[in-house]
């Protein structure tokens, strides 16, 4: 058996010095190699600036930034699970129907039958896990393609949603349930005309990000992997920090820190660490990168595939709670086309069509690009049909860019 773990080189004593003096490798090669990862951030900044100009600054107003967070948080939650599936070489077409079903179950328990709000949340998550286990069984242990299994699930769980709701909408949820997606934390430590707590949390997040990426850089150098030059690295960290603090400043001048943003941040951090720093995460990448090699290396492919679908179901249940809380009710048509938005977020964020490539952070950026485009076009009064055309073209270009990168990489070998 071979191991998935890498062994450090015999000599790595110059790693810290290399980290501070520009890294390893030819600058042009490093830029080309990291274009796919860094390009998405450049594109995101460019799109934000474009729509900020086209909307006369309304896009970046405190109230509108808060609305973007509240309106698209459930898509970002779905994108986390979707990118993990895509990395492993799978896909899930049923998440929109699962969002509808979990929200419907929660609404029946809380609104119709009068159970406490947390019972509805727990039931929605449990239904999501059950759905994920259902998909995982057929894909992992029966061997059916995920595309077919989840396509059937899309129809199956949409039909169950109609039956659970008896083809009618249910509302409203109690105020405690509504706070999941519409509540805010503010005024905890004061602030004159702004919420200081929001700024404090953002500052802690920026510091944590800077420490994390610097440690990652040192680790890559110890293993003699290519890294960007130190000035470019510092510029990237400062740019990310500036964007986060500006975002927090706007939130602090609106209604404070949204509870749903805290939920999303916890999920991003947890899944980011899981995919990068755990054996399970490395196995997911191994399966998507080379299934035969992963199997020969001792990866329990069926088990891993089963649990990533269970995880997708759990996150779909979470998105169902957030969406039903945001809309203050459950509707038979809830979650329509959510799966396409989640898939688009993953691919725009750098996931590869063939699997083995992608990151949680990249999927978040891809989802934010979709959110900013949608919100910006709505502010400009562009009709829904044109918005769909633009989103489709962006997704097409993202996948085309992935294919172009692969062909270029193959030509340079």
From TrEMBL:
Entry's transmembrane regions: 40-62, 68-88, 93-111, 117-139, 146-165, 196-218, 230-249, 255-274, 304-323, 343-372
Record region (Disordered): 1-20
CDD domains: TM_PBP1_transp_AraH_like
Membrane topology value: Multi-pass membrane protein
Entry keywords, A to Z: Cell inner membrane, Cell membrane, Membrane, Sugar transport, Transmembrane, Transmembrane helix, Transport
Keyword Transport carried by entry: yes
Pfam family, one: BPD_transp_2
Name the UniProt record assigns to this protein: Xylose transport system permease protein XylH
Purpose of the protein: Part of the binding-protein-dependent transport system for D-xylose. Probably responsible for the translocation of the substrate across the membrane.
InterPro entries: ABC_transp_permease
Stretches of the chain forming a coiled coil according to its record: none
Species of provenance: Phytohabitans maris
Keyword Ribosomal protein: no
Subcellular location: Cell membrane
Low complexity bias locations: 7-19
